[in-house]
Amino acid sequence: MTVTDSWDMPLRTQLLARALRRSRRPERMETLDEIARSRAWFAPARAPYTWVTGPVPAGVQIGTTSFRARDGHEVGVRTYRPRAAGPGPLPALLWFHGGGWVLGNVRAYDPVCAWIAAHAGVVVLNVDYRLAPEHRAPQAAHDCVDAARWAASGAPAADGSRGTDGGAGIRTEGLGLAGDSAGGNLAAVAAHVLRDEGGADVGYTALCYPAVDATMSSASVREHANAPILTRLDMDTFLAHYLGDGADALDAMDPLVSPLHASDFAGLPATLVQTADLDPLRDEGEAYARLLREHGVTVRHTNYPRAPHGFLSFPGAANGGRAARAELADWVADHASGSLQTRPGEVG
Predict the structure, then answer these.
(1) Helix (H) / strand (E) containing 120
(2) Residue 309 falls in the annotated catalytic set
(3) Which is catalytic among the residues 97, 142, 192, 309?
(4) How confident is the model at residue 74 (pLDDT cuts 50, 70, 90)?
(5) 66: annotated active-site residue
(6) Catalytic pick from 146, 180, 181, 313?
(7) Catalytic residue among 143, 146, 213, 279
(8) Which is it for strands 299-308 and 175-180: parallel, antiparallel or unpaired?
(9) What pTM was computed for the model?
(10) pLDDT category of residue 29 using cuts at 50, 70 and 90
(11) Which listed residue, of 201, 221, 238, 251, carries a Cα 20 to 30 Å from 100's Cα?
């Protein structure tokens, strides 16, 4: 396939893509100060920003808590609990944000995480895992695995209290793991590790345009090398920061970086994979869903036409954003409640 430079997207999406390209160029990610400035920004929860990101639902209580990772580091967690749910324990979903393992922050995901909490009736635990280049792979994966084990052992509430129901009013079994882009990578990696090593009962995962193949060898990477929102140059920059080049750097084929290259997919939890048609990551997400199906895992794969990478975060400016959020919330609600009955290997 040839590289495409023109895109069949609505004008509002093209304008957003241009604005994002001006504010987040790879050459602005060369120093820690530049990365820190890009990393810290998030859209305020007011108009006109919410016209793009969607509002933060008023019926969700947002709080903060933390847990101690395996190396003693205190990892922050932003929590979202639907007020209408009452005081009883609720199913929990751990969310891992995108940003190429380098950028992004938990505040930027308030619209997405609060939406899931409100519409799926779950407590969302948005994990502030450590980022590169200060923390190379597999540190982010370790933090996310540790977060799931913390939730499974009885996560403390946002006010620091702890109760017999799991502390934060959550159920400690049947946890969900979800994330977008690099966060989708981390959710997939954590699911593999927890299946193999234990420490948390994972009931399902949801991977939104996940980066699951650090070799970047799929056809869509070539086809959409100059795509809006995410380009091949962006991917090269992010992976250079995340993997590093020292003697202890992980290989791009390592399953802790590329879950697509894991040796065993059997026994993984039911998984939703959402991909964007105008995205370099499209084909690897599709390939991951196919491997899950071939190994008997319940999987739904939905590809959203005319949608660019990141479209879940800006439903007001991209095709498929609202539909993807609705599908995601339905998937979480159905699997968190245990009500969904599907055949192993089913693809929707």
Answers:
(1) helix 110-120
(2) yes
(3) 309
(4) very high
(5) no
(6) 181
(7) 279
(8) unpaired
(9) 0.90
(10) confident
(11) 201
